[in-house]
Amino acid sequence: MTDPRADLRQLLSRLPVFAGDLPAFDPDEAPDDPVALFTSWLLDAVRRQIPEPHAMTVSTADADGNPSARTLILKDLDASGWRFAAHADGVVRGSAERAAQDFLARGAGARAEALLGRQSRPLTGGLAERDAAVAQSADRLAREPGLVPPQWQLFTVRAESVEFWQGDRERKHTRLVYQRKADTELWTKGLLWP
Q1: b/e per residue, 162-186, with b = 16+ CB within 10 A?
Q2: What are phi and psi of 15, to 5 degrees?
Q3: Tens-level pLDDT at each residue, the chain (194 residues)
Q4: Is the Cα torsion angle 27, 30, 32, 35 positive or negative in sign?
Q5: How far apart, in whole angstroms, are the C-alpha atoms of residue 142 and residue 136?
């Protein structure tokens, strides 16, 4: 009997890497702040119809250094940072008004699920329990269309460092890093080894 892990290793080693068209990236032509470059790259991904180009992973670590990560949707971006919405206990909170606007702009299913406030908790009763709870939540939202749960927050990640990585078939990747100057909205930029 063959070892399935060996088959997987062989399969993975044969998969192409950087097989598609790789865009050119000249870091000397990059703007002076990462928000402008990020916005340009994001708009290019949207134009190219890349699926979910606004998906982002937010990671934190507890006091013992144990990481936790969650994939969310980018809601907005400006000089103050990258914004996403989620239940409370996060990064830098936005205003209650902006959080309410975000919640009410979500689709009905997304609002119903978020109203439950159970994200990332164990689902012990199976998918039927989930579906029943979301249906009850949807019914409540139908009765109270302006309802915004107080735990719904809009958060801003204020970056101190932002890295852009452009892959290269020959592994001569281009890595451009922006570092925020202390207590300012100004950035320095530099290159990193691949």
Answers
A1: bebebeeeeeeebebbbebeeeeee
A2: -70, 140
A3: 567 777 898 899 899 888 888 888 999 999 999 999 999 999 999 999 999 999 999 888 889 999 988 899 999 999 889 999 887 654 756 788 888 888 898 888 888 888 888 877 888 989 999 999 999 999 999 999 999 998 888 889 999 999 999 998 888 899 999 999 988 889 999 999 99
A4: negative
A5: 10
Contact 164, 175 (CB under 8 A): yes
Which DSSP category does 155 fall into?
E
Closest alpha carbon to 75 in 64, 85, 66, 60: 85
- Phi then psi for residue 138, to 5 deg, are -65, -40
Q: Which residues contact 25 (CB under 8 A, 6 or more apart)?
A: 164, 166, 174, 176
First vs last C-alpha separation in the chain: 40
Give the global pTM. Answer: 0.77
- Residue spans of beta strands (DSSP E) within the chain: 55-61, 67-78, 81-87, 92-93, 152-157, 161-166, 174-180, 187-192
Helical (H) or strand (E) element with 72: strand 67-78
Q: Give the span between the Cα atoms of 72 and 57, in whole angstroms.
A: 6
Structure tokens at 168: 């290269």
Amino acid at 124: T
